[in-house]
Amino acid sequence: MLAIIALVLIFQNRTNTLKKEIGEFAIDDTTSVTKIYLADMSGKEVLLKKVSPGNWILNDSLKARNEAVRLLLSTMYRMAVQAPVSKTSYNNVISNLATNSVKVEVYTYSPAIRLSRAIKLFYRERLKKVYYVGTPTQDNLGTYMLLEGSDTPFIVYMPGLRGFISARFSANVNDWRDHTIFAKKPHQIKSIRIEFPSEPDESFRIEKSGRNNIAIYRLIDNQQITLFDTSLVVGFINGYRNIRFESLIERDAPINLDSILTSTPLHIITLVDTAGYVQEVKTYRRKNYDQVFDDDDNYYPYDVDRLYALLDNKRDFVLIQYFVFDPITRPLSFFLKRD
What we know:
By secondary structure, this protein is of the alpha+beta class. It folds into 2 domains: 2-176, no CATH class; 180-334, no CATH class. The protein is 18% helix and 37% strand. It has helices spanning 2-21, 66-78, 90-99, 230-238, 257-262, 322-325; strands at residues 33-40, 45-52, 55-58, 62-63, 80-84, 102-114, 120-136, 143-147, 154-157, 180-182, 189-195, 204-209, 213-218, 223-225, 243-244, 247-248, 267-273, 278-287, 302-310, 317-321. The radius of gyration is 27 Å and the shape is elongated.
């Protein structure tokens, strides 16, 4: 009997909401979203899976940038239909959606049957919505979108946003990668080694034993340094709590990657944590692409704000900022006590 009632309710629910859903793209409960799949026409794919509230994994193996996922979920919740596409632009919009769009699949953990607000039965992960996100409208205030199974494209916008939302539905894996390089609390750090290949006298190694025992060694002769400013060293170690890169450099970026990687690094950072895990980061100067000059109108040969870094997996080449990295790449002389 229960099965019959369930089938009737499901059929009635689908019949009553079919017309309504034709123009609905928004997700009314983003906390129930468990998985988001995005794919574009060039073959790029992104799969975001929720592993715990607020934490997502990317393509089953990478840590996702949670703030980017939060922005996407907020967009899915707030976006609204402005109007169906006009008859005059219908053919062009359909053609563009067929060749230049991102397919979006949204999965939720939700009940198959809702008898009332309080009574919900048969929870499971299910495909909630499938739609295609196209290009912005001519005024850049809306985005063309089409629900799967519908032949009516709509202009979708986000109230309060003066712009388009299509860029938030990226199928590029790098747009979703977590930007964390170092995230170590002081008690998790065993040693930090900073090398300055062009200034070997400034290279050093910090070793920690316990919470309060700190030793510093000059690398050029492995001599232990006894007179150093403890507060500066403690602040330096604390700097490794949250170090992030600005952006990933695509492999097809218009730079001579091989030439950069064969040049002498500016710094080599090697961090070993208390579990024995080793991280190595090499930094490299970046050309002054922005054509910056000093106050005397002299041209800077290198970028004064950013530089490159090769991360320890030897796979990710990223753009970083001096503002972020200067505090964790101090030279040995910075810590020495002055007479």
